[in-house]
Please model this.
Amino acid sequence: MPNRPTLKTVAREAGVSIATASQVMRGSGRISEETRRKVLDAARQVNYVADGRAASMRSGEIREVGLLIHQIANPFNAEVISGVSDLLETEGYLVSVLDSRDDPNRQRRHLEALLRSARGGLLWVPARDTPPDTYSLLATQRVPTVTFLRRGQGQAFDHVGIMNFEATHAATEHLISLGHRHIAFFGGEAPVESRVERIRGYTTALAEHGLPPPLVWPCPDTKAAGLENVLKLRAQHPEITAILCNGDMVALGASLGLQRKGEVPGRDLSIIGFDDVEDASLATPPLTTISVRPYDLGRKLARTLLDRIRDPDLPRSNVLIAAHLIQRETTAPCR
Model:
């Protein structure tokens, strides 16, 4: 296997000094256009890529960011990742994405790997039951960190989240205004902060109107689980006329489950999702959902981290994004 091309290789190929080649690759110095083009052409010809680790050691600035999330396959997370990477790329940062799968042990291994490879910042959705020593690890390493969706223990880090209580409270009020009196909360299993707050918004709205006791139906936030469980819910609780879902995927699965029974979402059962992923508007019928604009959420997350990297002494930020209901075709007045 041939040796990896170095700056010396580029300089030799271009017929210039190593110092000149270095200035061209760094975009510094007073270099003629002809020389600059010659060096860049030589770099392409020999497949030269600058050693980012060496550059980071010289400048003291690390241009790589780790993003540790769970369930990368979920379209909501995919759109968030897209927003993060698009913004950070324009600022010259490389993003490494890892999936904890909501497992604190797997999460710890990934965090240690990111720290060993000297990331300049970290975007992190803490796994369920993350132990205190994991938060302590990050605080000790002093890596700029922003938690997402779930807060870091003790508010040690910047945080970007969603106004979950307000969102589901308003969505439940909307269903009540349509005449629904038997409404279930559908989806999710873990008692994590975001789901707890969503359930609290739902139950508070029911109590304010003196409606029957809440029904929380847990199941994984996937299409397959939504399809299977909506049929079980309908069989065991035929009085339910509307469901408020923990996410769009489980809501879209519920919609498919109804259609397989020959029922019509919005007519036979009203359904509201949460997130507003792209598939929500493209589904048949289009899904009524609580929109948090995941791509824009990702950009906000990236911007919060950049602010922390550039000014480590900023006061800790706690940004909560408001969500709003988008009415489509899976909700209608109760028959």
